[in-house]
Design a protein that fits this description.
Layout (H helix, E strand, L loop, with lengths): L6 H9 L7 H23 L9 H36 L6 H42 L5 H26 L5 H34 L1
Helix pairs in contact: 2-3, 2-4, 2-5, 3-4, 4-5, 4-6, 5-6
């Protein structure tokens, strides 16, 4: 998301026929929203007498979450840039055999680059989950459901990012490289997915008890 835009402008841009911003951008933005919610719970915990014993930990968590929020925001912008590079590569001339060869190599190069951005989103999802889990366990319990929403958004970010890794890897002319890369990322994707399910299950059980 371009933070110089209003939310309405972003949504208009998102729903337009322009391919950017698209699903990759939204996936990273889900991470930004999740980070912001977790920071909110930290803020609702800090300064409360009931949570005095965890205040210093919440302050540190808040600082770490701010960094992760900025990381997700940066990745949202980079996803737009990466896709634009792919579109530019497809516009390269292809009249001669040399031009076709140059174009093909460039498409593969930028497509692989476009896979690396959602990969970073997945890695950042893995990075944030221990912090979200701690906020859920020690943060203001009146905001317990907000931590659950943050977890759901991380799950969405992870799922969406993986779909973008998948489409880019399967578009590479060298499927051996694409498949090997995809297998490595799928391991992290499943780890994040399972962690989200675990945190969500714990929150649901607490809310019902």
């Amino acid at each position: 998301m371009n933070y110089n835009q209003t939310l309405n402008e972003y949504l208009e841009s998102l729903s337009s026929k322009s391919p950017t911003p698209g699903g990759g951008n939204v996936s990273a933005f889900c991470g930004t929203l999740a980070s912001s919610l977790a920071i909110m719970v930290c803020n609702l915990t800090i300064g409360k007498k009931k949570y005095f014993e965890v205040e210093s930990e919440m302050i540190e968590l808040k600082n770490q979450l701010e960094k992760i929020k900025n990381k997700f925001s940066d990745l949202a912008d980079k996803d737009n840039e990466a896709f634009d590079k792919v579109m530019d590569a497809f516009k390269l001339p292809k009249e001669t055999e040399d031009e076709k060869d140059i174009r093909s190599k460039k498409i593969d190069e930028v497509t692989f680059g476009a896979a690396e951005i959602p990969t970073e989103v997945i890695n950042t999802c893995r990075l944030i989950l221990p912090f979200i889990k701690t906020v859920a366990e020690k943060g203001n319990q009146n905001s317990f459901s907000d931590v659950g929403v943050a977890t759901a958004l991380i799950n969405a970010a992870n799922q969406g990012a993986f779909l973008n890794v998948l489409i880019n890897c399967t578009s590479l002319s060298n499927q051996t490289i694409g498949n090997e890369y995809l297998k490595r990322i799928e391991i992290i994707f499943e780890e994040v997915k399972n962690s989200c399910d675990e945190i969500t299950g714990s929150i649901n059980n607490k809310l019902r008890s």
